[in-house]
Amino acid sequence: MTALATCAAGVEKMLSLELRKLKEKTNINVLNVGFGNVCFQTNIQGIYLALMSLRTADRVFLVLGEFEADNFDSLFEGVRSIPLQEFIPKDFFIVVDKVRTKQSQLKAQTGIQSVVHKAAADTLCSAYKVNRLNETGNKAVLRVYIEKDRASILLDICGDPLFKRGYRMEGGVAPLRETTAAALLFL
User: Fold this and answer.
1) What are phi and psi of 95, to 5 degrees?
2) What are phi and psi of 105, to 5 degrees?
3) Residue among 183, 91, 179 at smallest CA distance from 137
4) Dihedral over Cα of 118, 140, 41, 160: its sign
5) Mapping DSSP to helix (H, G, I), strand (E, B) and coil, where does residue 37 land?
6) Which of 74, 75, 124, 146 is paired with 55 by a 20 to 30 Å CA distance?
7) pTM for the full predicted model
8) Rounded to an integer, what distance in angstroms lies between the CA atom of residue 95 and that of residue 82?
9) First CA to last CA across the chain, in angstroms?
């Protein structure tokens, strides 16, 4: 599986080092380090270990698919080609949480969000042989990153942000995210 861990800008090197350290315990290979994220390959054990162990990551996503998308038709067809039913159960509904574009012909974030949602719903409805998806209950959160006309469809697998592990009910005068504190300690 390919996963993407996001972090604060400037913390990428520390997150990459954390992932390389986890390689001793399971099969994790860092693929590349981007702006505010680190892409890595692993198995299901590595995913669980990353979710439980990473101290500088804000979120972890499963990369469902990557494809060229220089227009809305290619975006729709690219999302339709992803076997979403392998990752999203029948009783879940879909939320396209965020869209980020950089140096891409597709720029309209709400349009991208709408096309991805429609394509994902179409795929799941066909796979589960239903007319429409649930609109309440459990949700599958998708994110879309498009850079230089290359789209990545990501599934949020951590739920709440990782900095909320051990979340306190009351913050101090100047509360600090646990992930930011860990990054400072690494530095």
Assistant:
1) -130, 125
2) -70, -30
3) 91
4) positive
5) strand
6) 146
7) 0.89
8) 16
9) 30
Q: Which residues contact 55 (CB under 8 A, 6 or more apart)?
A: 18, 178, 179, 182
Share of the chain above pLDDT 70, in %: 95
Question: How far from 40 is each of 17, 20, 77, 178, CA to CA, in Å?
Answer: 12, 10, 26, 22
Tracing tokens 């390919």 back to the chain, one arrives at: 2
Q: Which helix (H) or strand (E) holds 40?
A: strand 37-42
- Token pair of 113 as six digits: 């969000």
User: How many residues make up the chain in this entry?
Assistant: 187
Q: What angle do CA 29, 31, 35 make, to 5 degrees?
A: 130
**pLDDT, tens only, 97-156:** 999 999 999 999 999 999 999 999 999 999 999 998 888 889 999 999 999 999 999 999
Highest mean pLDDT among 22-36, 73-87, 125-139, 168-182: 73-87
State the residue for tokens 């965020």. 98
Q: Which residue type, as a one-letter code, is found at position 8?
A: A
* Alpha carbons within 13 A on the beta-carbon side of 57: 28
